[in-house]
Design brief:
Rossmann fold; 12 strands; alpha/beta; globular
Length: 337
């Protein structure tokens, strides 16, 4: 198939494009920032002033010019395109019979709903909406989506796998208990409690210096957000990696729920029905309900290198069995459209 993919500039969108190409499809990739002369960040600021309609008209005008000599496409695949509304979809419809929108955030329950206005308004124009949360299926249908598919967050079958590490990599990235993620209000107290209970913690991520608990955390925060191969290396060099959920996004699992086991490191994540359906507790992953239980799980497994290795290997085998990869997700979405 010939596919037009419109998505963000970060690596995850490119990994999905690569999965489509691996499946044998021809893909044209437009980043959100290349649709208009203005950046996505700038245009989203206009939403605060109720100018979303103007953004949609601008996007539609630019798409019409950009696609003049392109297509037709078998499928237009949108990866959470917030700058495109009903007008833009009408332009896309001139070049395809099938429009898919994959939504990995939670615009239905998000407090910043104004930023999602165009995406939500355009749901009835999609032939398929793929969402990452169970409750989003009903919510999307209530907003007029014709066909909604639930998919799990994916890891990438190629990038998120054990790598050959140099001595320098091991020296640079090794840690006992790792957390990678942005600082949210509930995460500062959680991490402080882990430190108080003696967990040998290492943190990478943005915004931690703004946390009220920064005085307790500053010695364990080693850097900001990490992407690509360095992201894989830092997880692979950790004995245990913690998986926290985003309360604002109503998560019951996240990308890290798949990426950490895929890389072969022990996942220690919040206990949810979804996590328990993905991995056998105590055998393929560790789960907790609060910071004290998280600390207990981490400290216990660190004492036994054999059990640590067994859980890491079993978690990777289960990940492969689950098939929660970009390749399988894209295959499932295209089969449903």
């Amino acid at each position: 198939m010939k596919i037009l993919f419109i998505g963000g500039s970060r690596i995850n969108a490119r990994l999905r494009v690569r999965a489509l190409e691996k499946l044998g499809h021809s893909v044209d990739f437009y980043e959100h920032d290349t649709i208009t002369p203005f950046s996505e960040v700038f245009l989203l600021r206009l939403f605060r002033f109720r100018l979303a309609g103007i953004v949609d008209r601008l996007s539609a005008f630019c798409l019409k010019r950009k696609l003049r000599f392109q297509g037709p496409y078998d499928v237009v695949f949108l990866n959470q395109s917030r700058l495109l509304g009903p007008r833009s979809y009408r332009i896309l419809r001139e070049h395809t019979e099938k429009i898919v929108n994959y939504i990995n955030d939670d615009p239905f329950g998000n407090c910043s709903v104004s930023y999602w206005r165009l995406l939500l308004d355009a749901l009835p124009s999609c032939d398929l909406v793929a969402v990452s949360r169970g409750e989003n299926v009903r919510e999307a249908k209530e907003l007029g989506a014709q066909h909604v598919l639930r998919v799990f967050f994916p890891a990438d079958e190629k990038l998120h796998s054990p790598m050959e590490l140099s001595e320098g990599d091991v020296e640079k990235w090794s840690s006992d208990v790792l957390f990678i993620g942005t600082c949210f209000p509930e995460r500062g107290p959680f991490m402080s409690r882990l430190i108080e209970l003696g967990v040998p913690l290492t943190i990478y991520g943005n915004g931690w210096e703004k946390s009220p608990e920064w005085h307790n955390l500053r010695h364990v925060v080693k850097g900001g957000a990490i992407y690509g191969k360095d992201y894989v290396k830092v997880i692979q060099c950790a004995k245990v990696a913690i998986g926290l959920l985003s309360k604002g996004n109503r998560d019951t699992s996240t990308r890290r729920s798949m990426e950490i086991p895929a890389i072969g490191t022990v996942l220690c994540a919040e206990r949810t029905d979804e996590h328990l359906s993905l991995y056998k507790e105590g055998k393929e992953a560790l789960f907790f309900d609060n910071a004290d239980e998280c600390a207990n799980r981490c400290l216990s497994v660190l004492k036994d290198p054999i059990v640590l290795k067994e859980i890491g290997c079993a978690g990777r085998r289960r990940f492969l069995k689950n098939g929660t990869t970009n390749l399988e997700m894209m295959k499932k979405i295209l089969a449903a459209v």
